[in-house]
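Q: How do we represent a protein-ligand complex in a form that can be generated token by token?
A: Start from the inputs.
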Amino acid sequence: MTTVLERVCAYVLKRTTPNREERLRIITLAKNLKQKVEAAIMEAGIEAEIGVEGSVAKDTWLRNEPEIDIFMRVLNTVPRKAFGTVYLKTAKKATYGLKQIERFAEHPYLECMINNVRVNIVPCYTVEQGEWISAMDRTPFHTSYITKHLDQPSKNEVRILKQFMRGIDAYGAEIKVGGFSGYLCELLILYYKSFIETIKLAANWKRGVVIDFEGYYDGVKEELKKIFKNHIIVVDPVDKGRNVAAAVREKKLNEFIAASRAFLKNPDLKFFYAQEEKVLDAEKLLYTMKARKSTLVFVMFGRVKTVSDVLWGQLFKSQRSLRKMLQKYSFKLIRDEVWSDEKNINMFIFEVGDRFLPSIKKHLGPPIEKREDCEKFLQKYLGAELTISGPRIEGNRWIVEKKREYTDVVTFITENLKGGGRHIGIANLLAKAITDYFEILVNEEILQIYSANDEFAKFLTKYLNGRLGWLV
Ligand code: CTP
Ligand code: CA
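Then emit the structure tokens for the protein with calcium ion bound:
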């Protein structure tokens, strides 16, 4: 008799594993592309070794999201600049006629689409292990490490784990997600042997999980924690100086731990396939927002021309600065979020208990035994323009009630964003966009955007619901 858990895993495996036909289609496509790139390289009279890398090479790709990674490995005498010029041009030539997008991670690469399959053509250097020049130089080493160590049954386990990460929205090392990369999933399976063992052990993970299966830090575990300041450390088997889990944010790590526990209690497909959020209609939305009796402030601004990772990095950094400012000025922040369509709209959302604070603010002075400090305090506040009431004594200290600089959260944000907001920690590219245009909408004023933009509507519905998707 099979258990529910086994049945769920078997179903997921079936849905995520490409069948023979699909496998053949992707592998043929990858081979053809590789040959085309090789031919274009020859024709251009330059040198590069072309290889298929990533999950297609490792046979760990998910059936409904095939993505082909083709790497051009070049000699270390080639200047980095050439990646963005001659190598990019050659990649374009090789894929002439396909839809092409120039992308940029640490350096430029080309993305194109062929029959609904995304293809990345990425330059990197041919190096000895450990002598990395560009960030992508490790990738061929990852491919060989995984192909060497991961057997067929383990590939199945990787696919189940990747799909689980997808289902709980924790898949991907990009900054927007801050989750688990494909390679990290592969390493977890190599270490724990199976999906279910990974889940069982993750359910008990404590702060500071360390996985170092090449034993690079045997006997010096403490050193490891000094080098990597992350909540989970998985030492890259091909590079002892790199934490494969460096991108995993604390929140995503904990969501994975919590989801693992819940899944063990109730193995269910919902952990693998998140249900589409049913968007609230306008009336329900307004009712739900109103019932909170809070103030939702939407700070909207326009296009920021940069790559996704930089955009999200800047959004998160600026969000932290704004959050700190609001707290410093005593606004009672309930929650804050960022949203972006990565095209035309970027948004910070701040939910505060009250839009307005009282005009007066209680300010604690020194305790009475500090004679000199008391004297200075009186000099400063007695009869001062900002003093509304006091000074007087409460218990053992001087007190004054003074005028608050900002009483309206909307004015507060507006004033500070004028001119871009660099002085309060808004990141550079965002500050530029904000200087050109920003708009603040409060509560129901968001309705128009909500009705016009499906993705935003999903986001806001999710926000108001606030519950992790896999919780019943
Ligand atoms: N890579 C990495 N760290 C990242 C992103 C990528 O080391 N944060 C390397 C890995 O060697 C990975 C390769 O780049 O195998 C390709 O990246 P990606 O396409 O993101 O991962 P895949 O393993 O191909 O997984 P997926 O199925 O998600 O495409
Ligand atoms: Ca890939």
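The two ends are 27 Å apart (CA to CA). The chain has 17 helices and 15 strands.
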